[in-house]
Amino acid sequence: MSFYRDYNDKLAFEAWNTRQQPVFKTIQVKPISRAGGAEISGVDLSKDLSSEQFSEIKKALAEYQVLAFRDQNINSEQHKKFGEKFGTLHRHVSAAIRAPGGDPEILAWKTGKDSRFTAGEVWHNDVSCDETPITQSILRVTQLPEGGGGDTAFANTHLAYESLSTPLKQLLLGLTAEHSGQEGWTNGYGEEPAPGQKFAVSTHPVVFTHPVSGRKHLFVNRGFTTKIVELVRNESQAILELLNRHIETSQAFQFRIQWQPNSVVIWDNWAVQHQAIWDYYPFNRWGERVSAVAGIRPTQELTQEEKKLEGVLVAA
Ligand SMILES: [Fe+2]
Predict the structure, then answer these.
(1) Residue among 248, 69, 259 nearest 149 (CA)
(2) 113: pLDDT strictly greater than 80
(3) How many domains does the chain have?
(4) Domain holding 157: CATH number?
(5) Which pLDDT tens digit goes with each residue over 238-295?
(6) Does the active-site annotation cover 151?
(7) Ramachandran assignment for 285, one of left (phi > 0), alpha (psi -120 to 50 degrees), beta (any other)
(8) 116-175 pLDDT tens trace
(9) What's the rounded Cα separation, in Å, for the pair 51 and 32?
(10) Which of 126, 140, 246, 268 is catalytic?
(11) What is the largest CA-CA distance in the chain?
(12) Could you tell me the distance, in angstroms and rounded to a whole number, from the CA of residue 286 to the centre of ligand 1?
């Protein structure tokens, strides 16, 4: 064991930092950190996007995982219209509780002096308890806190996976984990499901292969993941704690988006975890989220090398 960077984390960062990055023709893309995130300009989200622009936005999202569009003066309908381009709009089970009478396809929140919590303070993937989890979330902050703050922090879960040691990766490739809405919302916020409804519970691979990039990502989070199915309780708790701490404390693969008036931020909800930073109390921060669902489940594809590690491939 070593604290020095002799092992897979060096290899992970080398591969990431020397990857071939795409060239864009119809949008301007300015990366904001090594680990991920980019500011996009040359786009007006209040207007119809050309198919070239939209395909370049998707390409940028696959590459940088989180995109910030600045100076976008859009309303809720235009926000939804942008979301619909990625998939079916998600209806959050708590939308009506958090904003009674509102649009079920918009998750609105108002954090202020009387709030008990702000949504998303714990590191998480949005609604990972769904069988087909949200693929993209798109956020607008409609009221920024006076004096600043309220950034959103992100963690690149591909780098999180790749920087683990080979024996640990080998173990994780064979595991699945349970994600529960009750853990996130009842235990987290004291919210109960509407009468006659239950919060979702689903099982996903601990490591999945991203359907667009082909990269592997860790997919357990503090917000929703309750247990690793194949392990006994003590092992499950210890491994989950290890993975959560790895994601939450490794600043080398984290980055932050600073909000400005009229910013719209989209993230690949499978490729990153995020955390809402509540550092502006007692000031107000209001916003709206629209999320898209592609209707697919995270799955894992092993490379030939990984199959050998798993003992799946019998040597000829
Ligand atoms: Fe969130």
Answers:
(1) 259
(2) yes
(3) 1
(4) 3.60.130.10
(5) 999 999 999 999 999 999 999 999 999 999 999 999 999 999 999 999 999 999 999 9
(6) no
(7) beta
(8) 888 899 999 999 999 999 999 999 999 999 999 999 999 999 999 999 998 999 999 999
(9) 25
(10) 126
(11) 67
(12) 14
Can 126 be counted among the known catalytic residues? yes
245 in catalytic set:
no
CA distance 161 to 247: 9
β partners of residue 111: 285
- In this structure, what are the phi and psi dihedrals at residue 89, rounded to the nearest 5 degrees? -75, 135
119 Cα–ligand 1 center, Å = 7
The distance of Cα 33 from the centroid of its chain, to the nearest Å, equals 17
1 is a domain residue: no
Contact call for residues 119 and 109 (beta carbons, < 8 A): yes
Query: How much is the CA Rg of the chain, to the nearest whole Å?
Result: 20
Please give the distance, rounded to the nearest whole angstrom, from the Cα atom of residue 52 to the centre of ligand 1: 29
Task: Determine, yes or no, domain membership for 12.
Answer: no
Q: Residues within 5 Å of ion ligand 1 by Cβ?
A: 120, 126
Q: Which of 79, 124, 179, 285 is catalytic?
A: 124
- 142 lies in which domain range? 20-310
CA of 124 to the centre of ligand 1 (A): 6
Whether 144 maps to a domain, the answer reads yes
More confident residue, 306 or 282: 282
Q: How far, in Å, is the centroid of ligand 1 from the Cα of 184?
A: 11
Q: Is residue 35 in a domain?
A: yes
User: What stretch of H or E contains 39?
Assistant: strand 38-41
